[in-house]
């Protein structure tokens, strides 16, 4: 009869309960001497393996979720690329407007005549633009001419920014002269009988 069966039979008897502990210790010692794991170590190893199996299962589920999200993202990118290809190219609307302001040239009427009208208009309370008899509302201009002057479109008057037109080019004068009538003689700006220095815009 093999030793294993003898031990099992001995341990199954009532007296075997007394020697059960020492026998287990002897068995564990023999297993350790031969390099085998003890039953307790095997149980712990099984518990660790079961835990790892559970963690791997949850990681598999997470990887599946990430793969699904990646597929959805790829589909979205493909749709955006398709829309970009189908979208018509922006049409060229022509040259961009210049940032340099366009200041109108002074009128042909002599400066002295325009200044005389402006001086009389102050007494009458009318617009200081030559031949305009509308009531003055702001800065000595009627409502219409005040809007043109504010926008830099009123010919022959220094703009609110101090801009004048010399040979078709905008030039700057002292902004304190804004609203004054001016004339140009060659490249010289004249205001009320005196020359005014200008700088490039």
Shape: rod-shaped
- Structural category: mainly alpha
Assembly status: single chain
Radius of gyration in whole Å, from Cα? Answer: 51 Å
Strands ordered across the widest β-sheet: 1-2-6
Order of helices and strands: HHHHHEEEEEE
Biggest sheet overview:
3 strands, antiparallel
- Overall number of domains: 2
DSSP helix fraction? 40-55%
Distance between the termini: 118 Å
| Poorly predicted residue ranges | none
Total count of helical runs of at least 4 residues: 5
Nutshell version of this structure?
The chain has 201 residues and is mainly α. The protein folds into two domains: 3-85; 111-200, no CATH class. Helices cover 49% and strands 10% of the residues.
Describe this structure in words.
By secondary structure, the protein is mostly helical. It folds into two domains: 3-85; 111-200, no CATH class. Helix content is 49%, strand content 10%. The chain has helices at residues 3-12, 16-33, 39-86, 111-124, 143-150, and strands spanning 163-166, 169-172, 183-185, 188-191, 194-196, 199-200. The strands form two sheets. The protein has a three-stranded antiparallel beta sheet, with no helix packed on it. A three-stranded antiparallel beta sheet has the order 3-4-5, with no helix packed on it. The termini are far apart. The mean pLDDT is 81.
Keywords for this structure?
201 residues, mainly alpha, 2 domains, rod-shaped
């Amino acid at each position: 009869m093999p030793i294993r069966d003898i031990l099992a039979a001995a341990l199954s008897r009532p007296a075997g309960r007394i020697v059960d502990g020492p026998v287990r210790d002897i068995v564990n010692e023999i297993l350790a001497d031969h390099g085998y794991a003890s039953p307790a170590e095997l149980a712990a190893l099984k518990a660790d393996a079961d835990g790892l199996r559970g963690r791997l299962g949850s990681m598999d589920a997470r990887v599946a979720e990430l793969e699904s999200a990646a597929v959805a993202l790829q589909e979205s990118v493909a749709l955006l690329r398709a829309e970009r290809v189908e979208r018509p190219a922006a049409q060229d609307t022509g040259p961009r407007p210049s940032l340099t302001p366009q200041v109108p040239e002074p009128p042909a009427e002599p400066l002295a005549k325009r200044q005389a009208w402006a001086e009389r208009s102050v007494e009458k309370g009318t617009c200081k633009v030559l031949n305009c008899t509308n009531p003055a509302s702001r800065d000595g201009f009627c409502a219409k001419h005040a809007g043109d002057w504010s926008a830099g479109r009123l010919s022959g008057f220094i703009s609110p920014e101090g801009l004048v037109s010399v040979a078709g080019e905008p030039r700057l004068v002292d902004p304190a002269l804004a609203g004054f009538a001016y004339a140009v003689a060659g490249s010289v700006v004249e205001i009320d009988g005196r020359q005014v220095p200008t700088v490039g815009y």
